[in-house]
Amino acid sequence: MARLSVLEDELTDQLESPTLIEGLPGVGLVGKIAADHIVDVFDMVHYADVYCDGVPDVAVYMEGDPTLHPPVRLYADAEHDLLVLQSDVPIRPDAATELAVCLEPWFDDLDVMPVFLSGIAREKSDAPPALYGVGCHDALSRLDDVDIGKPTESGLVSGPTGALLSNAVKSGLPALGLIVESDPQFPDPEAARIIIKKGIEPLTGIEVPVDDLIDRAAEIRQAKEQFARQMQQADEESSQARPLGMYQ
Questions:
Q1: Pairwise CA distance, residues 89 & 237, whole Å
Q2: 99 vs 28, 51, 89, 91, 127, CA distance in Å?
Q3: Which domain holds residue 37?
Q4: Nearest to 220 by CA among 231, 208, 212
Q5: pLDDT confidence of residue 89
Q6: Global pTM?
Q7: I need a surface site. Which of 3, 88, 97, 189 has the fewest CB within 10 A?
Q8: Spans of the chain, pLDDT less than 70
Q9: Cα–Cα distance for residue pair 134/225, rounded to 1 Å
Q10: What is the CATH number of the domain that holds 116?
Q11: Strand 155-158 versus strand 240-243 pairing type
């Protein structure tokens, strides 16, 4: 059974229709890199812990801090009316569905607008990664408002992010998805930069500094490579967008 344990109750009253950025691990680790960067750059507060039967029973600790934490957490920034869902482990799609059902009443209470992030594999190219938006219910108009492009081909989103989006469609929850071309084999900080600057910034109206993300791209890629290999070994746990053509 999934449950949410709020650690900072006073922050709840300070949030007004916040935007939630989902950063579950997926192809290119785009969502995770982007989410981790946003948490770091705004020094976001550890707001809540998320417990779910399908999440591995592990405890994590951070550099320079001996405190143990569960691997799936929510961070909050009241000043920017922002939430980030962060995970340090792969999550199975069935666990993500349970997680979505757990979070849905909380989304309703706080009037949360979830923005889900996914990479879509692309061939090596010197061109910047392309980005487009998808969504459901009343959220769709927000993509037009900020001129985020539409998909150029039919496709689907799989893995835990796909499960979260599927639940939003079924439940009537307004939700948005940002899909960016990314390296299918290695962590892709450049794709994460694109999803921040061309997707998250326009949707939230928040300027997110990315100089550090660019300067440390090689370091980030190296640090995340072991995690990416774990994701490749558990492909069904990896969020990714795929062209529908391969299934037709």
A1: 10
A2: 23, 8, 14, 10, 36
A3: 3-247
A4: 212
A5: 85
A6: 0.89
A7: 3
A8: 1, 220-239, 241-242, 244-248
A9: 28
A10: 3.40.50.10900
A11: antiparallel
So what's the pLDDT on residue 246? 41
Which phi and psi (to 5°) does residue 69 adopt?
-140, 155
CA atoms within a 13 Å half-sphere pointing along the CA-CB vector of 245: 3
pLDDT for 218:
72
Helices 159-171 and 93-110, axial angle in degrees (round to 10): 50
Cβ contact 195:33 at 8 Å:
no
Q: How many CA atoms lie within 13 A of 231 on its CB side?
A: 28
Nearest to 115 by CA among 179, 205, 70: 179
Q: Quick one: how far is CA 147 from the chain centroid?
A: 21
* Count of domains for the chain: 1
Amino acid at 77: D
CA pair distance 214, 236, nearest whole angstrom? 30
Q: Given the structure tokens 């053509």, which residue do they identify?
A: 245
Q: What is the pLDDT of residue 247?
A: 36
- 16-57 pLDDT tens trace: 999 999 998 887 789 999 999 999 999 999 999 998 877 888
Query: Tell me, what's the pLDDT at 110?
Result: 93
Distance, CA of 109 to chain centre: 21
118 in Cβ contact with 239 (< 8 Å): yes
